[in-house]
Structure formats: C-alpha cells, structure tokens
Amino acid sequence: MHKSSHPKYLYFVGKGGVGKSTCSASTALALAEKKNKTLIVSLDPAHNLSDIFETSLEDKPKEIKENLYAMEINLEQRMEKSLKKTIDMMKNLYTYLNVINLEGMFDTLRFSPGMEEYAVIFALEDIFESYRNMDFIIFDTPPTGLTLRFFALPHISVLWIEKLSTLRKKILSRRDSLKNILGEKYHDKELPSTVKDDSVFKELVSFDGRLKTLKNHFSSKEDSLMFLLLNPDRLSFSEGRKIIAAFEKFSLPLNMVIINKSGLYNDNTSDELSQFMESFFADVKKKFNGLKTMELPFKDSGTLSRKDMMTFGENVYRNVPL
C-alpha cells in the first residue's frame, strides 16, 4: 500500500487502439484491491472507461468500488471554461483598450491552435490540486498526437513566456522613459511603468510558475510513471519510436513497455517483425535504464474478463516500483 503526502501519477500512452483503456483500468482495479485509494481519469475525447466499468461517468469522480474512483474529462466543457477565464482576465488587464473590438478577437480564440492541448493541461492541473488525497491517479491518455502535444506544451510555453516577459519589460522601460522626458505632458499616467506595478507582467510570472509546476509533474521520476502500450505490429512499433524520441526530448521518464495482444502473429510471416521488435527493445533499453517489459497475451474473445484484468494489473503492481 502506497502512502505519501501526494499521489503517484501513472500515464498509459500509445497510438489509438493499442489497449490503453483496458491496461489502465486493469492497473486501477489491482491497486484498489491492495487498499490504495485510486482515481482513474480518461483524457481521451473518445472515452472507453464507461464501457469497461459498465457505468456512466462524468467530469467528476464516481466511486466504482471500494478505493476505486473514475472520471471522464469533458474537454469541450473544460475548453469553454478555460476560454472564459482567459477572456475575463484579458478584459481586466487591458481595460484601456476598450475602444478596440476585443470581442471579435476573443471569438477567434475558440479556433486557435493549441486550445485543446491547453484544456488538457489545465484539467490535469485541476486534478493534481483537487485530488491530493488519492494514493494513485491513473491517466488513460488520448492517441499519440494530442498526448505528445500536451506533454510538450509546458516546455514550449515557458519559452514563449520568457520572450513575452522580456518584451513586456522593454515596454515598461519605454513608458518610464517617456514619463520622465514629458513630465506633465505625459497623457498615460495611469498606466504602470514598472514590473512591480504592472498586472500584465505579474500574470506572466504567475503563468510561468504554473507551467513549470506542470513540467516538473510530467518529468518527475519519483512521482510520475509512464507506460508505453504497443501492439505486435510494425505500425505500432514505428509510432512507439516517435513517442520515445519525444520522451527523450522533453526529459520524460519511461518505466515500462507493454506489448498488448502478444502472440497474435505466430506464423512464419512474423520473423521480420520479430527482428524489428528485437531491434526496437535493444535501442530503447539503452536510452531508459531499468526499463521493464510486459506482455498481455491475445484473447480470441477479443475482451478481457475481470479476472484477466486483475491478473494483468497485479503483474504491473509487482514489476514497477509503485
């Protein structure tokens, strides 16, 4: 049983259809059975947890059984909430620009690149803060593209914040110079001219702190555990290489590679694939010390029983230092 001042975070990642939902739910069941208070969260717009647990889920935790809670993030709703908060903040910061049609500019934000990714990381931020009483929080992530973008977003955004902060300091410095040169003729006396008095700069500093906290959450080898799900096919392993390259770039840990549906290909045509997989693992194990591997055998029925799920989850529990 894991007891700490804060939860451990488990992320199940991989391309669509590799079994992230099944494997994350199996692990959640096993952890709850060991008397760990566990929350499993679906971040995938195409949710599967409701079907797996055979109950309707919403954007708030629902008790599935003793010690196990589940929720499915409503990204559309979270995006609208985040957008409204951003708009209200900008209106408050830029009241002196009310002569410009800001409403029209705000409308375009809804369709701006990155809004979905920001909705995900703000949802994660909320979960980190709201459910610190859990022992484990498990994330069933979206397919590769969206997952890698939201993992990368804090890193990229911090760089932008640094540039914007430098630019803001220049603006404030020039305001201060104008104020000193023009004296009484300076017409914008109500506008701040130092970082100490500037609400915009304070907001940039605050946002920078939030992003760095998220970045540290994702990259923490003590608190975050990453599980890469693959199917025994070349396309899945090729995408796995892209995920690993991104993990390296953004200093994310990788704790386990899980081959779901192992044994699906058993004829002679799989020899080339076997060599491809061996090359993959040899390469990955060089990059991530202590990497564990597991296999989840293919079932002719196409679905796992609750007993199978518990068995698999217990194997994860035994093989990774939770």
Helical residue percent band? 40-55%
The CATH class assignment is Alpha Beta
Strand content: 5-15%
Arrangement of strands in the largest sheet: 3-4-2-5-1-6-7-8
Number of domains: 1
Which CATH architecture?
3-Layer(aba) Sandwich
Specify the biggest β-sheet.
8 strands, mixed
Shape: elongated
Instruction: Report, as a whole number of angstroms, the end-to-end distance.
Output: 9 Å
Q: Residue ranges: pLDDT <50 for 5 or more in a row? A: none
**Whole-angstrom Rg:** 24 Å
Mean pLDDT: 84
Structural class: alpha/beta
Question: What key attributes describe this structure?
Answer:
322 residues; 52% helix; elongated; Rossmann fold; alpha/beta; eight-stranded mixed β-sheet
Structure commentary:
The chain is an alpha/beta fold. The chain has one domain: P-loop containing nucleotide triphosphate hydrolases (Rossmann fold), CATH 3.40.50.300. Helix content is 52%, strand content 14%. The chain is built from ten helices and eight strands. Strands 3-4-2-5-1-6-7-8 form an eight-stranded mixed β-sheet, sandwiched between helices. Strand 7, helix 9 and strand 8 form a beta-alpha-beta unit. Helix 5 packs across helix 6 and helix 8 runs parallel beside helix 9. It is elongated, with a radius of gyration of 24 Å. It starts with 7 loop residues before the first strand and ends with a helix.
